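Protein modeling request. Please complete all fields; requests missing the sequence field cannot be processed.
Requester role: graduate student
Desired output: 3D structure, C-alpha cell encoding
Chains: 1
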Amino acid sequence: QSADITDDNSGNLYTFNTLPPDTAQPELTADIPEVIEGTALSFTGTTQPGSSISLTLNNNFVSTKTIGKDESVFKFENILLLQDQLNTLMLESKDPAGNKAQLQTATYADVSTPRMILGSIPKVVGERKFTLEINVSENVTIRVMKGTSELTTAQGAHLEIPLTLEEGANDLIITATDRINHTSTKEISIYADTQDPQITVDFERGREIYEDRATTYNHGKTEPGADVYLYVFKPQVAEYNPQFDRAYAKTTADENGDYSFNDVSFDGRSITDIQLKDLKPRELPSGLINDPIYPFQAGPETEQKAFYVYVIAEDKGGRVGYAKDTVRINSCS
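Delivered output (333 residues):
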C-alpha cells in the first residue's frame, strides 16, 4: 500500500479563479415588417450563439429552432398569418445557461384591397362646402381628384374630409391606397347649385311678326340641364297679375345650356283658347310674384296685338330664374 502523498506547493498551496455564473439575458432582435403582402411571413433575427428560439403566433406555439454555438443568426420561413388582420408574434430566446429574453411584435397580413363605404352622397347641394364621410376596412391614404386636379389627401380608416366644390357638376374620383399599395376606387358626382340660373329668350322671326305668319321658334340659353317653362299672356282691358300655374310648354336645356320651343303660335286667339298644360316650377321667381301686365296701347298707324312671353328656368337644385319679352303681331289688312 502506497503512502499518501500531499502536494501543497511547498507550503504555499494553490489558487484557482472560478468564473461567475452566467445570468445575463441574451440579446434578441428580429427583422419583422409591420405589414406584409399575403399571409406567408419569413424573417431573420439574431441572438446569443447556441441559443434555442421559440416562436408563438397569436398565442399559439409554432416551433423552436436551435442555432450552433458559433452562430448568432436564426430564420423562420413561411409562417402562415391570419389574413387582413394584425397578427401578434412572440419570440423567446434561451441561451445555454438557461437565461431567457423575449421580444413581442405584430404584423398585418394584407391580402384584400381596401373596402370603402361612403356616407350619404346627395346629387345636388345648395352650397359649395361639403363633408365627405368615408369608412375603410383598414388604414389607408385617401386621394380625392376632380379631373386631373387633386382636391385633397387624408389618412386613416374613419374620415370626414371637407371639400370645396365648384359651381355646377363635380365629378370626383376617390382612391384608397393601403400600405402595400393595394387600391380601390369610387366615383361620385355632386352638383353644387348656389346661384339662380340665368336665361335668355330670342325669337327666330323677331319680335314683330304678321298675322299670316304668327308662329315662331323660341330659343335661348340657360344653365345646362335646367327645365324651361314657357308662358304666353295677352294684355287685357285692365291690368292684371298673370298666373304661372299652367305653362304653354316645357323643355330641358341640353349639355350646352341651349333650349328651344318650336311652333309657338301667336295667331290672335285668346290665350285661354290655347291648350295649356299642368306644368309649373316648384317655386316662382320672386320677380314675378307681383309683376302686372298692363293694357297694351296699339300704334297709331298699324293695328297691333301683343303677347307677353315669359320663360322660367328651374335648375337641378330647384333654383329659378326668368326672362320676359313682348311679341307684337301686326295686322295684314
